[in-house]
Design a protein that fits this description.
The protein is an alpha+beta fold. The chain has helices spanning 3-25, 31-62, 201-207, and strands at 152-154, 162-164, 168-171, 174-175, 185-186, 190-195, 213-219, 224-234, 237-252, 258-259, 266-271, 280-281, 289-297, 301-311, 317-329. Strands 6, 7, 9, 10, 13 and 15 form a six-stranded antiparallel beta sheet that branches. Helix 1 (3-25) packs antiparallel against helix 2 (31-62). The protein starts with a helix and ends with a strand.
Length: 332
């Protein structure tokens, strides 16, 4: 029921009351009329209230209950003891689903990195081939009869000291210093200038490097130490002295040649301006060894150059074959 419908019966009742008051103030009106008027008003009220009551019942069934009228007399309000606050209620769910938002995780602060230096540009061109030092230009052989093809002679007239022309020989005597046995003394060597036809055919290509001749210095069962020397007039410059020597150092002939096992059994040294060299060993016995020495002279002079050879032990044969020596000036 709306407010207008609820107010209407009260308005009708108030009107009837006013009408009754008016009738009482007029003495001429009879009691019958008053009663009739009241009955009419009551009838109208009942008639009016009938549909209103029906409407009220329908409205009460569908609408919320209305508050009762406030009483005209004051009502004492009882003192109510304070009560504990009601327990908190759970928060009602939201009427609409919240829009999901993407959670942004905090990122770590980037650590500054060191920027490497800019690399040098890559050279795409292939590197130039390695250069090898140019071979020195050498003069001709400055030795007299360096390949021993120019004849020979007997030193001091002794046939056991055959020497190539242009060469001299020195040799040691006395204790070797390498042992205390009776044979640990230097023996005079024997030297031969041998043409190829005096060699067995199987040994010609082995003992001759150049031409038709070779020199052999040797001694059986005794140590030897000798020097083959030549005096040469030289101009200032740099020179290369080359010597080829075959160490035929035989410890035993039983079952064929058995070469010495000690590498110090045979040694070589250069004699040249500036002191030459110390004693040098062979890489192997029974093959040609190549030895080379470079030296310089500052003024024009005649110098003695040569090669020393020694076999320090009393082997079955201390032998050295010698061929194809040279002394050349460096031209560039």
């Amino acid at each position: 029921m709306n407010r207008k419908q609820a107010f209407f019966p009260w308005l009708l009742l108030a009107s009837l009351l006013l009408l009754l008051a008016a009738c009482q103030s007029e003495p001429e009106t009879s009691e019958v009329d008053v009663q009739a008027t009241v009955d009419t008003a009551v009838s109208l009220t009942v008639t009016a209230q009938a549909p209103i009551a029906a409407a009220v019942e329908v409205a009460q069934a569908t609408a919320e209950p209305t508050l009762p009228p406030v009483p005209t007399q004051p009502i004492e309000t009882p003192t109510v003891a304070p009560t504990a606050p009601p327990p908190p209620t759970s928060t009602p769910p939201p009427t609409s689903s919240p829009i999901p938002t993407e959670t942004v995780e905090p990122t770590e602060t980037a650590v500054p990195t060191e920027i490497p230096p800019t690399a040098a540009p890559v050279n795409t061109q292939p590197p130039p081939p390695p250069t090898t030092p140019a071979e020195p230009v050498l003069s001709g052989n400055l030795l007299v009869n360096g390949s021993f093809e120019g004849g020979w002679y007997n030193m001091n007239g002794a046939p056991e000291f055959q020497l190539p022309n242009g060469w001299a020989m020195e040799f040691d005597s006395g204790p070797t210093g390498f042992g205390g046995e009776e044979w640990d003394i230097w023996f005079p060597p024997e030297t031969r200038v041998l043409p190829y036809f005096q060699l067995p055919e199987s040994e010609r290509s082995l003992f001759i490097r150049h031409g038709d001749y070779t020199i052999k210095a040797f001694k059986g069962n005794g140590p030897i130490s000798l020097r083959l020397l030549q005096d040469v007039a030289l101009q200032p410059g740099t020179y290369v002295f080359t010597a080829y020597i075959f160490p035929d150092l035989v410890a035993s002939y039983q079952g064929g040649k058995q070469f010495a096992g000690d590498p110090n059994a045979g040694e070589v040294r250069f004699i040249a301006p500036g002191g030459g060299t110390g004693w040098l060993t062979f890489a192997r016995f029974g093959v040609w060894g190549t030895f080379q020495h470079t030296f310089t002279v500052d003024t024009a002079q005649t110098v003695r150059i040569g090669v020393g050879m020694r076999g320090r032990y009393a082997l079955a044969s201390n032998g050295f074959f010698i061929d194809d020596w040279s002394l050349q000036r460096v031209e560039n």
